[in-house]
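Action item from last week, closing it out:
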Amino acid sequence: MSGVEIGLISLGGILLLIYSGLHVAITLAFVSFIGIWVLRGDATQAARVMSLATRESISSYLFGVVPLFVLMGLVVARAGLGRDTFEVAGRALRRVTGGLGIATVAANAIFAAITGISIASAAVFTKVAVPEMIRMGYAPRFATGIVAGSSVLGMLLPPSLLLILYGILAEQSVGALFIAGIGPGVLLSLVYCLAIWLLVHFWHSYTGNPHEASEVTAAPAHGRFDTLNKLLPILLLIVLVLGGIYGGFFPPTEAGAVGAFGAVLIAAAKRRLNARTLWEVTLETGHVTAAICFLIIAATMYSRMLALSGLPAFLTEWVIAQNLGIYGFLACFVLLLILLGTILDSSSILLVTIPLALPIATSLGIDLIWFGLITVIAVEIGLLTPPMGLSVFVIKSSLDDERIPIGDIFAGTAPFALIMLAVLILCIAFPVIVTGLV
């Protein structure tokens, strides 16, 4: 059996085991070990390769960015800054048709700039925005669809954990990826807002019949000071983190430290963080970081097994021989990512596909920063598509309302998944949307 055949069999085995319910990291590590064992005919050598991959994969200083941004995002969520942002946006847009839906997108975009975790955004705004929108007359499926669609902004607008993961796997600058994410993130936010306005205007059978009058969107009873008090901490944190990175004052890892410290200070000043809450957040950060590091270690093992099999080189030569060109390859790759998104979560898709796709992208002369954003947008569409739809399941569990079935939530996300696909096509057709600021 040739190395290429072993590599192809390993891919099938990985998808089968993951779909059967085995943890992604365990699957990658197990298949990689067996693959190297078969390739080298020596279990001891396979164990040494795996041990070396374990030591080297997360020894870089860059990995410090993961727990720091996770800590910052969790503290921000606990501090209630998502609710504050939503209330401010709701007041500002109270006279706009579909204003509360647009406010949800705006608040999610701002919240994304200080968390970088789509799932956190989905959980926070499900509890904050969905009940308010339903009370105002929005159809439940449309209200949940708005939250699910806008939650993906957390993986586009910097800082983004998925961009960090891609940067690590592809050995690209995390700072450059953050900057590249601004254009697509802002574009997607604006298109979402326009779509909500149009849908509320012309498709009442789908959106319900919102009436822009509620406690949130009424005239601000507490005056400008209350609005400033809620908005200022958020803006300060954004300026502190992103201003520090883009201003050249510190790299992303140190920005994560500064942001986490700033988030703790803000939460303490707002009296929403005590010693017990801080301990719980720190413990949760450890759990999330351990899971991410385990995934990265397993992905490194998998990459080394693929390199030994020769499968990436074989696929590169095969794609070039087909004369698909850059756009033909991207079309096939995006289709694959969207299909995988129906059964796998975002991180798993990156870990499985990036080691295979990078050599091909490099041989075709594709800008890897542009390629990274295209990959992330395509992967994020999977958060909204059945049967996996991770954001949809997070919303369902956060709602805990039997009157809103999972099928209705998926129906609500459908327009937003199509909008994401349209924005993805625009980013492919006009690379300047991604690379214009880099």
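Closing note: Residues 3-435 form one domain.
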